[in-house]
Amino acid sequence: MTILVTGATGMVGRHVVAELVNTGHRVRALTRTPSAANLPDGVEVVGGDLTDPRSLEPSLHGVERMYLFPVGRTARDVVAAAERAGVRRVVVLSGALADTDLSEDGYLAVERAVEESGLEWTHVRPGEFAANWLDWAPAIKEARVVRRPYRAAVTQPTHEADIAAVAARVLVEDGHAGRTYTFAGPEALTAAAQVDAIGAAIGATVRFDDLDPAQARAEWIGNGYPEAFVDWIFAMWAESARNPTPTNQEWADVVPQLTGRPARTFAQWATDHAADFR
């Protein structure tokens, strides 16, 4: 059985490849730059681009199962090509808020494309990626500071290796067809606590400058973030800061239930990425 991993050199895809290789599966890894893939020995690395479905056709020959990185604009053409090639099962990397993402390039567009095909499908919907904190790595490296609003906002960050472990398990194990797994990390933490965990991982104090939301909004938009995105995420942070919620245990239980091992903490994630922040 050959399993195609798209987005194979991405933050999650690289871990999906490793999980499958470690459990003895034959992996074909799709990436736009095969020469720079740096994937484990034994992985068949092929070139292709999800934004150009025709470029995927050679890589689909002989593939039974596929991990699909979400690119909504071309999802229907990619899924149709997979179906023509004889792929039977697709696992979609989606998001916990997929139902609210109605854009043509959003998670929901990919989910619907797969659901409306003749393929067996499973959706993997992690909550906030712990790796979002990598956006702050330059400021932490340069000045040991994070400058953003809502230090009291609470989230439940998920290690990308746990996302990959869930995806790999439902790719190779039967009994998950037609299921959507929404999950998150094992603990709810304020933004300030997450910054403290990064500081502990690098052995340094990282300051949290709690910005005025109006000032931060103007800065983010000025730096190129879409206005709608800024308003959405700031509103979510503001509500969380006003009404912090405890750990969603139902979401937290999914990783250990599916993988048979505890979910990684944010402190573990920070330790794994310490070099990015030093």
From TrEMBL:
Pfam families: NAD_binding_10
Database matches in InterPro entries: Ergot_Alk_Oxidoreductase (IPR051604), NAD(P)-bd_dom (IPR016040), NAD(P)-bd_dom_sf (IPR036291)
Positions of the NAD(P)-binding domain: 7-172
Protein name as it appears in the record: Uncharacterized protein YbjT (DUF2867 family)
